[in-house]
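Tip: read the tokens left to right.
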């Protein structure tokens, strides 16, 4: 069918992507979506972005690693929440303007609720990219003390070598915001001192493929509650769809 309404995902090395499968199945499941199409825009550099924006009949985009932060300067405006977070994962083309949103925060928050994860004493955030900024925002909003861990030496973050037993005391939510462990590199995981992790700690891996990462397996061996990023992805995708749907009626 000609002149289909176009949606898609912007990222790098995204052939495996959840979003294309999710939305393609959604569009094929109902005749009212037969005029919609979803495409992966796998770009090597953020400077290739204008080629994507010039696509015909573009209605909405998702954004993934490594462009959630870099894409902001290419947009006409962003939501207040996305601005506070400092990362965008959803773009809607509203009345000729490119508007950025962050639906990851909804997906993350609701995923915790659905898994009855509350009464968190502190959080340990692994990574410093756009996903990590979403978790930082969640912690600040909910008055949860947190530490950010990075492979790069910094005055703002901890290094993996600085982690000690005190970090893992009480009910700590450990969130992997890095791509470590993603298929096909399933034998990789963050270099935590796993021998110091307590069974009261919760390991949340934002990676969803494989469904159980090495990070999660190590947590299960200790007796920790673990979960992956699949539920969060579905929830953020549904929220993206709600945003787009308001402008494509």
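Filled-in amino acids:
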């Amino acid at each position: 069918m000609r002149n289909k309404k176009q949606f898609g995902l912007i990222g790098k090395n995204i052939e495996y992507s959840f979003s294309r499968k999710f939305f393609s199945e959604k569009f094929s499941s109902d005749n009212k979506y037969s005029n919609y199409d979803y495409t992966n825009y796998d770009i090597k550099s953020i400077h290739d972005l204008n080629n994507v924006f010039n696509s015909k009949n573009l209605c909405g985009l998702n954004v993934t690693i490594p462009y959630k932060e870099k894409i902001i300067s290419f947009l006409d405006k962003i939501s207040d929440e996305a601005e506070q977070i400092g990362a965008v994962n959803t773009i809607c083309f509203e009345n000729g303007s490119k508007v950025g949103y962050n639906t990851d925060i909804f997906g993350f928050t609701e995923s915790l609720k659905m898994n009855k994860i509350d009464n968190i004493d502190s959080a340990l955030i692994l990574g410093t990219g756009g996903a990590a900024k979403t978790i930082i925002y969640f912690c600040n909003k909910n008055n949860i003390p947190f530490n950010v861990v990075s492979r790069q030496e910094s005055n703002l973050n901890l290094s993996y070598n600085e982690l000690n037993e005190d970090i893992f005391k009480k009910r700590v939510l450990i969130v992997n915001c890095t791509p470590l462990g993603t298929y096909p590199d399933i034998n990789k995981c963050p270099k935590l001192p796993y021998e110091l992790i307590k069974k009261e700690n919760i390991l949340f891996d934002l990676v969803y493929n494989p469904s159980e990462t090495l990070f999660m397996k190590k947590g299960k061996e200790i007796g920790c509650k673990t979960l992956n990023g699949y539920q969060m992805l579905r929830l953020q995708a549904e929220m993206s769809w709600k945003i787009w749907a308001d402008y494509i009626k």
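The two ends are 18 Å apart (CA to CA). Helices lie at 18-28, 49-53, 80-85, 104-114, 130-141, 214-222, 230-245.
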